[in-house]
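Re: the 392-residue chain
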Amino acid sequence: MTILTINSGSSSLKYSIYNMEKEQLIAKGLVERIGLPEPKIYHKSKEEEVTKVISCATHEEAVDYVLTFFDINTIKAVAHRVVHGGEQFRRELIIDTEVESQIEKLSKLAPLHNPANLIGIRASKKKLTAIPHIAVFDTSFHATIPEYAYRYAISGKWYEENSFRRYGFHGTSIEYVTNRTRSLLSLKKSKKLIVLHLGNGASVTAVYDGKSIDTSMGLTPLEGLIMGTRSGDIDPGLILAMMRSGNLTIDQIDQELNSRSGLLGITGNFRDMRDIQESALKGSHSAELAVQMAAYRIRKYIGAYLIALGGLDAIVFTGGIGERSSYFRRLIVKGLNSIDVSIDISKNEGANGEEEVIISSSESKIEVVVIPTDEEYMMALKTKNLLESAVL
């Protein structure tokens, strides 16, 4: 079964195609700057690598261009990433008119993501009409979080009338990483996991026996850790104070907290951990402060989730920073000696996101692993399993 995966942004379309009989990636790529000057495509397979400027005013044109690399007749299904599934979508499903309508309604909970995801869904359905299109939701892995963990301590009407609660994100990635960790360490040794998905967006998830029981992101991806440009956890009163002091509108405070805060806000210059690390090593106070603040926030969550899990078998690093930054991993783990966590310096330095690695030292009572994530493969696998179960 050959499956195409689509991750659509407002001006981009990321794709991959898998042969699921062989569980093999055939090709992957990205169309960016759709509808903007000089749109580009990056495509990579065993046979070729393509990087060039193309003519691409719409997502439909982007899909058209992507499909020139493949035999359309071999594609059996398209898996679409959808960020927010709300309470109603607890697993992946075939996209029909009603599902499409519900995804659109959920845009009020994810205004930056669901509308963009829908653009890709509609463009792909127009071009590939004879095959099923599947929605895979970032939030669905967190559907197992208990009510006492997902509810906010606000008037019940906000939950009952608006479904305002913690949902969590990065679910497809965390599910993949959880499965790989349990395979690597054995189910018995990885019942209680803390998964650190660290990239420009970052989250921590407590996983018990393969299921999410709590996560740091909430109603939106803004809650939780310090991220590239997002503030993470702050006093809600600070929002009011900022709005009053700066005479800010709702949209302006949204931009401030989502696009001008986090690592960028602290350093004033950088949101990329590589740049911040380099600057910190050169003696920049703001860069050193940024990594210290980010690592401290992560350690606080690890402590909280260790209690929520009733113990801990392994800490899992994934995401661009989690997989590739030995510097940041070392900084985080350095503050966990009180729970007998330590890493092997050589193994940590050698872990660069290319393979799954156990980096904990022989003295560590808790395993520390680095697992490169593969959300696209997980999307393809979920689609394959759904379609096979539907046939049965």
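The chain has a mean pLDDT of 95.
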